[in-house]
Amino acid sequence: MITGRQIAAARALLGLTQEELAQRAKLAAEALQSIEMGDNESDEAALTALRSALEDAGISFIDERATSAAGGVGIRLSVPSTTTVDTDSQETVQYPEMAENGPFGAGG
Prior knowledge:
Layout: H1 4-14, H2 18-25, H3 29-36, H4 44-56, E1 59-62, E2 74-77
Antiparallel strand pairs: 1-2
Helix pairs in contact: 2-3, 2-4
C-alpha cells in the first residue's frame, strides 16, 4: 500500500498541484489533501485512483519490501506508461551506432 507521503512526494516531483492530481485521479482536492496529510490513508479506492494517475505520469512506487539499495518506501520517476522511449513506430531502437560492434547480450 502506498502512503500519503509518497503521494505528496510524487506529486511534487511531477510539479503537479493538489488540484491537478485530484482531477487526474477523479477525486476531490480535499480528499487528496486529507490522504497526503495521513488522515485518510485507508481509502483504498482513492489510493488506487491516485496510484494509477501517478504511474501513468511516470512514477514508480517502491514499497518497504523492495530489495533496493536504499531500502524502505519511496518513489522513482520513470518513463510514463503512455510513452515509448528510443523507438520508432516499428519499435526499432533508434541508436544504430550502438549495434555496430556486434550483437548485444550476456557474454557478448
